[in-house]
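Cont'd.
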Amino acid sequence: MTADIRDHTASQHLADGPPGDAGTVLDVRDLTVSYVGPDGGTVACRDVTFQLGRGEVLGIAGESGSGKSTLITALTRLQRPPATTTAGSIVFHPSDGRPGIDLVPLGSRELRRLRWTSMSIVLQSAMDALNPVMRLGDQFADVLRTHHRGMDRAAAKVRTVELLGMVGISADRARSFPHEMSGGMRQRATIALALACSPQLVVMDEPTTAVDVVMQRQIMAQVLRLRRELGFAVIIVTHDLSLLLEVADRIAIMYAGRIVEIGSAEALYRTPAHPYTRGLRDSFPPLHAPLTTLHGIPGTPPDLRRLPTGCPFHPRCPVAVEACSSTKPPLVHLPDQAAECLLLTPEATS
Amino acid sequence: MLPSLWSNPKVRFGLVVVGFFTALAVLGPWLTESVLGVDPRANDISAIASPPSAEHWLGTTQFGQDVLAQLVAGARGSMFVGVLAALIGTALAIAFGVTAGYFGGTVDHILNFVTNLFMVMPVLPLIFIVSGYLRGTGLWVIAVIIGVFGWAGGARTLRAQTLSVRNRDFVLGMRMLGESHGRLVAVEVLPHLVGWIASMFLGALIGGILAEAGLAFLGISDSGSISWGSMIQAAQSQSAVLRGIWWWFVPPGLCIALIGTAAAMINFGVDELANPKLRAGTRRVIRRTRRAERAVAAEGGAA
Amino acid sequence: MTAAPEAVAGESTPVLSAVDVTKHFVVRGAVGDSSVVRAVENASVDLHEGRIVAVVGESGSGKTTLARMLARFYEPTTGEILLDGVPATGRATRTYHQDVQLIFQDPFGSLNPVHRVRHNLDRALRIHDRRLSASERRKAAIELLERVSLTPGEDYLDKFPHELSGGQRQRVVIARALAVGPRVLLGDEPISMLDVSIRLEMLNLLDRLRREDGLALLYITHDIASARYVCDDVVVMYAGEMVEGGPKEEVIARPAHPYTKLLVESSPDPDRVGTLSREELFDDAEALGEPPSLIEPPDGCRFHPRCPFAMERCRTQAPPRTDVGGGHWARCWLHQEGRAEEIGATTFAAALANRDKEVRS
């Protein structure tokens, strides 16, 4: 089944199919986000384009300052001034076949209607998402009854127990306050909460950064099973590429506000096309394979206010050529992935 | 930090006012003698309790003394008391608060006990008693009394702040190099408390001026020296309010109010810088962002 | 990774060692009641010249407490810290820190934001050797910066911490620690807050310090792959206790304790991508349990409530240390009961699912 989804979305992405495709849940085009300052804007996210298939897991990997957090807040429309979306569209396609909705121009009331029911968010720190002075069950009832008019208390309770059960939390925990639970359990509770109104898309911002590896594995196993059972799509944003390689169908690599490479997880691991992707992949020492001396990527990510000319990665790139410092690299489509690198163009490869 | 402090209009207003009165206090005698050409103590028999006029801009007292000249001389008295009281109070607050917070343990127990003692002491009656004993010994005694009784609140704040800085990794890191406690406090911890200390000093300054005025009003003051407090007290003893002689009490009262406002403004400004959520600038950021959004929308509409 | 010189423990006296150290913290509750947090229990570790020992564990496993005891920020409740075989309690912490320095996790917090790089290095050099002149200290500071690959050193002297990236800051922190000429560096998760792309260079730097200067290093981490990359020996901690230790390849490839196995199998390993399907990768991984409270840890082996191999004995008696050969040891009853080969037979998750199935039937 997973393979189905993967093939389907990969072909669709590369076919540049028209928006509104039945298999697409989110269609992001040329999204550009700036931070407005007194002396003009700083572009933190530039021309981001990708499609997300129904039930697909898309990973977005990037280092600090790559624009991944900016992208997440723009996608979920949680952005606050001075951040502003200056161009592009984020079209959400409801599952019932109604026409797609562009989220960018929506007002806060329409957005509120879409949140939870169509798209929900899991944040890095569960403590930020849960109300510390409310019992877990009451928070679930709150969300459920706000979005399902007419749901009575008893029905909400039943549904809460069911939701908690999905992430392996026993029913009696509904009486607990967030501080009475471990970090891992809190994070699982926020995932259950995000699924409360059966959304078609769950956006997760560093969902396992605050928990240990064993809990990370448990959480990811649950997310993947629930995704299989319920069919929602997932966007996971993290700096941990090694985790994404295991859990995501497709991965987008961000650097200096751009998606520099996007493709299937396996392609990005086996045959990364962009030198940055290659560097990032080689920044994770292997767990079992023979050890060699690795170097990561020399230098530091660029300042978004003073981006290098040409390819933003060229000052750190081990294979950069003369032209990289002056020419903006085009997006080059390959069988399993697409990357923005001058060296992939037909002129360079010939 | 300093340039951004100055760019805040509230802080700028406050600093200008405090600077003005400080200058007045320093240059006071020279101003009254050379510029105004009057001695604040000289009695003009021809003008007793006369309202403001070309000759006496702010009128005269019941002894025919020029109110403006007294006001300028009073600035020196009041500022002297305020600055000295603030210096003593802040020094004690640093000594008790920072020491207690940095060393913790038994040292903290003892110092904190003393601090709490001073917190709960009925300060005003104590000041009455002490100043009653020391009556007539000059403004500096009043300043010392105000300073010695008014540091406890500041010490508590500094203790809490020191506690939070003390266990930061950079202090541990420098300690691991073998830095002495004295240097750790002075070079690593204190710079992080400068904002608190500065705002505390300003608070103590205005507190000192007010306390001096209050004490003078209640009759506890040095009868030989001139301060805003003693001016108001003189006005009160002559029932100036009932007799409508506003120029006796309004000018010193306004000065006290103005310097109080200035200190409060500086504190607000420092708070805003320390806590961005309070910043009035946030509104500016939102407006700027909305403008950018509208511009994008307009462009999109035109295209 | 280049192999470290073969210095087998026991040949030389360790530079620094913890012998059976235990740390209990007393926590006072709001209403005057107090409880004891058993943060570290009978832990021993030896640091040798030119070798790197990694302590791996999850948060709450006691690894940071152990590092802080070795740095003498806390005195052990029982047990001893030995420097060159001599109890450290007899020495002033000031002279102790001439030999032992700790690198903190957060490079943003370990440099005072109000001071330039110069101040940090200058003070360290001055305290270390009072006879140095200002120009000698400047020269030494530049050399230190270049030793941690901040070249040219002059450019960094007058920078404030906020002008540096996380990796550069951590390098300054290491340079500052090196300024006093220590023989032991303790790294408390020194790379976990750095950007992924620069972590490896930081590990390479630690490796170089060990090889070129013969420093003894302790590397504390939750990331078992990075431990394998840089260290010689690994010690695994769980709930305040050391459960397994030995040469890294032995411990990671053939775990002798079920917890180590769980930890290794839970760590992301991109090499598995493509060879195993995702269903296989995440199969049965939903209910692996959580570490216990350190206030009331389980009796016997602290891992027994989560362990698929647990026996009656595990619930009551703490397992002894068993040597499994080649310096590899573990504290697990399976070795005493002749069931050691069961650990390697399946995956942890499968064993756990199997046990649950048996319990139900």
